[in-house]
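Below is how a single chain appears once it has passed through the pipeline. First comes the sequence as given, then the structure the pipeline wrote out for it. We keep one example in the README because the format questions we get most often are answered faster by looking than by reading.
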Amino acid sequence: MNSWVNSAEILGSDLPLELSGTGNRRALLMDALREAVRSGRLAPGTRLPPYRSLAADLGLARNTVADAYAELVAEGWLAARQGSGTRVAERAVPVTPVHRPRTPERAARPVHDLVQGQPDPSVFPRTAWLASARRALAAAPDDAFGPGDPHGRPELRRALAGYLARVRGVRAAPERIVLCSGAAHGLRLLAEVVGGPWAAEEYGLPFHRALLASHGVGTRPLGVDADGARVDGLTRRDRAVLLTPAHQFPTGGPLHPGRRAAVVDWARATGGLVVEDDYDGEFRYDRQPVGAVQGLDPEHVVLLGSVSKSLSPTLRIGWMVLPQRLVGPVVTAKGEREQFSSATEQLTLADFVASGAYDRQVRRMRQRHRRRRDQLVAALERRAPHIRVTGIAAGLHAVLELPPGTERSAVRAAAWQGLAVEGLADYLHPGSEGAGQADAPRDGLVVGYATPAESAYPEALEALCRALPPG
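Resulting structure:
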């Protein structure tokens, strides 16, 4: 099939969406919605149908439409607020196509990539992974090649239960673990099961907030300081709170022990849920990793994890360690069959963990990232000693604190240097200003140091230093 066209009823009128071509249907839907906005067929403020309705009208999976909405919210094409649904974002002037001469793709790319969260793909352990794949396939039972169980392969759940208990202090039997395709997938499932509203740290991934909003779950910001999230701002109205306790994302620093205990007390007293995003809990450099909050109360904390930073985001394997009462509802929300993660890759990862290869890979990456961090700190001490670096005890990025009012100009200067880097304001919750407990927005750069190749990293640091405001 080369093209297909369906109609979606929006505010009582039919809007034809032309999803032409073959390939990823989420990408086709996103292209069609962008074009509808550009052409004026979808005016600013127009309310789109709920993702379930649009999925039914277009014959798509609900998750496909939900993911498309979330990504378009993150890009600024759409806006989502609890109680008002998803709408076309308001704009000061109509959006019109801008026709530019075609240039080679390479010319549009930055020379150096210091965007956070992207591991260097060249360090994927190909030989060890291939050895695990061979062993896993040779030992795989016949049912591994049939319809998948939505819980995930039992071999991987057993391996993860042992690994997480040993390394992260997690308390969970394999039956409490449900596999997913990553933290975003886990959040989507929890949004469907738990409902809203949620509280979230005032600094965090905009994509996660947009994803929750696309599922009707609004978030309100909790202030963040040197001790992590200010959990004393939680209320009985909050159904859940999304935290990064091991290393607050992106500002850095673990959640203070007193606040870890306080958030568990809040969950017990209110029946709320703590959603612990353990996105880089393994990558702590100056002392042993901080144990997971989940270990304090497995019945009130969900742990989300994945291999996207330690191995590769292309594997699309993550996990949820769930309270017993949520296992059944989450599996029901996921569907009758596993449709997100390959069974053979799950089996390979199970062998990779059980054989010790995963531990070796994490140690290797920890050493590499520590060395990268130290190079960044040394370059700043030499070239820009007036810039303070924070959040460097763990993770794959650092925050460079800038003088007030200089963040935007620093990002622009970095672009002129051929450097891809993000400002701290990109991660600030839109409701933080005036939230009552949040500080004034800070100026800073979020600098990822994992992606560049070894040979290119020194030049990337030089370009970064040239882009920084003078002292």
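Residues 357-383 form the longest helix (27 residues).

See the next section for the split statistics.
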